[in-house]
């Protein structure tokens, strides 16, 4: 069990040598989401408290660098984590004498990123410390333990994702998973899905399907809408104006997704789009479709 009592932290270590004090002690602070930053303030406070531990280990206050640029960012990847990239760069420049983190999972939940950090720390003789002790990545036993901790952190992330995904699938099978609604539908506070209260929005949706039956092609419908200056009413899903109606010019992709959306046929569907791992985003981000 991890000991979170600062008074019982290791105050001295034979792995910290005089030349380490000539460099910086870096305290790395990270929370996975902005919600955690707001709700788990005790964890954030504990991470900032590592400054006191660095001082107890021999660093002066001005030689302690706090990197907290990654608050609200996941540790699953180095992408978008400027703080972690800065940490690796500082170690590579031989500026860091010690890295401190409450847990190894705060530094990285990806084995690739974790072992990259271990390699560069071993090369430049930079110890890593958490609440359990101080580790030297160049020593076999410490490297083995750090590697195990990194593997456990990555496994925890996989388990979290698996639980969340299975929960979503179970709710979707029961038809209880709330999904983004296409133009023409809104969801009340009670959870009931109903037609958009704006009658013009409803009439335009009906007109699009009617014209598709009459004209037979998507391009013909698009030309008709453009020629007559007809715009689509879209309810904003995010931002300070969430829920407000915004009128936008129609385009081919929006019409294609609208005509293929199963909601207009009264069907509940989930999982119609696949995620491209190379892009780390969905391959069909158009409005009105999930």
Describe the structure.
The structure is a single chain. The chain is an alpha/beta fold and 290 residues long. It has 2 domains: 6-161, Rossmann fold, CATH 3.40.50.1390; 185-282, no CATH class. Helix content is 43%, strand content 16%. The chain is built from 11 helices and 11 strands. The protein is elongated and about 80 Å long. Residues 24-175 form the Resolvase/invertase-type recombinase catalytic domain.
User: So what's the CATH class of the largest domain?
Assistant: Alpha Beta
How many distinct domains? 2
First-last Cα distance: 43 Å
Helical element count? Answer: 11
Shape: elongated
Domain Resolvase/invertase-type recombinase catalytic: 24-175
Protein name: Resolvase/invertase-type recombinase catalytic domain-containing protein
GO molecular function: DNA binding; DNA strand exchange activity
Domain Recombinase: 182-290
Q: What is the strand and helix layout of this fold?
A:
Blueprint lengths: L17 H4 L2 E8 L2 H6 L1 H8 L1 H7 L7 E8 L10 H11 L3 E5 L3 H4 L3 H14 L3 E3 L2 E3 L4 H34 L11 E3 L5 E3 L3 H17 L2 H10 L4 E4 L9 E4 L3 H9 L14 E2 L4 E2 L8
Parallel strand pairs: 1-2, 1-3, 3-4
Antiparallel strand pairs: 4-5, 6-7, 8-9, 10-11
